[in-house]
Amino acid sequence: MNERLTVLLARVTAGDRAARDALFAAVYPELKRLAHARLYGGGRNTVLDTTALVHESYLRLVHTGELGFDDRRAFFGYASRVMRSVIVDSARARLAERRGGAAPKLTLPDEQAPAALQQDEHIVQVHEALQQLEQGDARAAQMVEMRYFGGYSDKEIAETLDVTERTVQRDWEKAKMLLRAILSVDKEA
Amino acid sequence: MGLSTEQLARLSGLLNEVIDADTAQRAQWLRDLPPEHRDLETALRRSLLPDDGGAAFDVWLSRPLQLDALGGSGLHAGDSVGPYRLLRPLGAGGMAEVWLAQRADGAFKREVALKTPSRLEWREDLAERFAVERDILAGLEHPHIAHFYDAGVGTDGRPYLALEYVQGQSLLQWADQRRLGIRERVELFLQVLQAVQYAHEQGVLHRDLKPRNVLVTDAGQTKLLDFGIARLIDRPPEADLTQRFGRALTPGYASPEQVKGEAIDASSDVYSLGVVLYELSCGQQPQADGAPQAPSARLDAAAADARGGTVAAIARRVQGDLDAIALKALSTAPTDRYGSAGAMALDLRRHLSHQPVQARPASLRSASHCYGSCTSVTHGSPSASPAPGWCLGSPSSSAPSR
Fold it and tell me: Measured in whole angstroms, how far is the alpha carbon of residue A63 from the centre of its chain?
């Protein structure tokens, strides 16, 4: 068993851009597969427990020998970014489907569809605001990524970033303020 | 036309100045904003003084992600699961929902905590497997273990577990809210060890020990939840690798061998207990990479305050024995840990009664007043592991999970 991802994680931590792309390419399908298995395989439950997905993929990758037990922190730090892509991509795909291809299916009996549409738009909105925020305050952006897309608790974030929970709470307050400024400016523009 | 990158960076820096201020102070600060930052005034106002105090935005941002339109697990109050009728939801964890429920057929009046999976794919052999394990788990009777009543599969194929409904707070919350000192925390933890030792003697491993699985009642009695349930819901060994891996364990608390999917025994639970003791001592989990630092070195002001002292005072209290005991339980090699929960309890009792503890070699004990770094010396040193005077007997619950 090679610890392929361990090596990639180490290189990403050292600032290697090519490794970052390779790691993304390796982890994305894994998280996507899990997300789909949960959403469509389980049938009835639809709340996306993203932290559980990250936990599960970590466990599975350690199990297959691609990750080491000690890589948890680095992996968690990285996985929320991948989770975000998985979520945003599928939200965009659904939006496109509903807006474009779904037009003839006017008889769609799904009375709850508007709520789902709203949710998908919401996801894309946060994602786009986050892209702006990344330029101005990368740390705040990471906080939103971990909380909103990764679903991590304060404790998990504190552990992943090696800061105290208090710092996490403070950073989260600030990140929300910045996000609020970005989103309300966008609305008026 | 949104904010430019430069403006955002400046906004972020300015927010640091007033993030801890109250509304009145923020308003004043805005009025005093220097001219060079006037272009950010509107953005700052929206950030700092939202019309509704930010409540709507918080809700908007905290909505759980739901990737299709059906919503929820599909269960409602009043629904039946097996012979139980659901009364109200108690909570939802990573893999299961918990409902307060009552027997629908009136066989028992008591209320139970009914656990049913939110989304695991369940298997055909589940009913059979449940029947075997049910008897073992129902046989666990201990004042500090929440009773396991029943497990089964409803007519619609939905599996359920019926457990004692315990009203209480999770271990860390309980201790922090009451600002329990270190001695009181250790005493509380000893109740947990007693329960684990008892179950191990019956051949049952817990497999998912964490503070959230320990509730403390108003009377200060701990109740360990979900004993052996992790095994019940692990996936079967014959399935393919991707299917096999159950998530019935929690990274951060699970032992290295458990995470790797290797055979586990009582010492795996001892590792998880080490994490719990570590967290009780300093408020943080051991770092996720490398050898853990001593808990006494990881205290911050808030954690110390929740333990009723200053950082220096609590660190002095934890360093030495408690550092050594926690780190011994957290050893990577199972054989370096305590051989049983009982052995760990014995060492903690020795500590409480000011006797030498096994986790610290004799040569270091005299140095009990040294500060900080000396504790790391004890970690990893070969210490005499107490011989386990018992072994896990039941083939059903002690066999490795794969």
Answer: 22
| A78 in contact with B, Cβ within 8 Å | no
CB of B66 within 8 Å of a chain A CB? The answer is yes
Mark whether B208 is an active-site residue.
yes
Please name which of B93, B88, B94 lies closest in space to residue B75, comparing C-alpha atoms: B88
Q: Higher pLDDT residue, A108 or B49? A: B49
Q: What is the pLDDT of residue B46?
A: 85
B400 falls in which pLDDT band (50, 70, 90)?
Answer: very low
For an interface test with A, the pick among B29, B61, B305 (most A C-beta atoms closer than 10 Å) comes out as B61
Q: Please say if the pLDDT value at position B7 is more than 80.
A: yes
Cite the beta strand spans of B31-83 per DSSP E: 80-81
**Do residues B252 and B260 lie in contact, with contact meaning Cβ atoms separated by under 8 Å?**
no
Give A-chain residues touching B92 at CB under 8 angstroms. Answer: 47
Q: Write out B306-322 in H/E/C secondary structure.
A: HCCCCHHHHHHHHCCHH
Q: Which two tokens stand for residue A31?
A: 């998280």
Query: What is the predicted pLDDT for the residue at B383?
Result: 40
Of B5, B46, B284, nearest to A135 by CB-CB distance is B5
* Residues of chain A by 3-state class (helix, strand, coil), percent to 5: 80, 0, 20
| Best residue of A69, A122, A126, A152 to probe chain B, by most B CBs closer than 10 Å | A69
pLDDT at position B182 is 97
Residue with tokens 């957290």: B330
**Torsion, CA A85, CA A88, CA A89, CA A93, rounded to 10:** 180
Nearest-CA residue of chain A relative to B261?
A63
Give the whole-angstrom CA distance, residue B28 versus residue A120.
39
3 state SS of B340: coil
Residue A38: per-residue pLDDT: 57
Q: A53 touching B, CB under 8 A?
A: no
ipTM over 0.90 threshold: no
Calpha distance B377→B238 (Å, rounded): 44
Residue B257's nearest CA partner among B241, B270, B244 is: B270
Q: Say whether A159 and B287 touch across the interface (CB within 8 A).
A: yes
> Average pLDDT of A89-113?
55
Whether chain A has a CB inside 8 Å of the CB on B259: the answer is: yes
Query: Quick one: what percent of chain B has pLDDT higher than 70?
Result: 73
Distance of alpha carbon A140 from the chain centroid? 15
Exposed/middle/buried for residue A157 (C-beta within 10 Å: 0-12, 13-18, 19+): buried
Residue of chain B minimizing CA distance to A116: B69
The pLDDT value recorded for residue B389 is 32
CA distance A37 to chain B (A): 9
pLDDT tens digits for range B352-388: 999 999 998 765 554 444 444 444 434 433 343 333 3
Q: Which residue has the higher pLDDT, A90 or B332?
A: B332
Among B208, B234, B321, B323, the one annotated catalytic: B208
A18 CA: distance to closest CA in chain B (Å): 24
Task: Give CA–CA dist B209/B192, Å, rounded.
Answer: 10
Q: Is A173 on the interface with B (CB under 8 A)?
A: yes
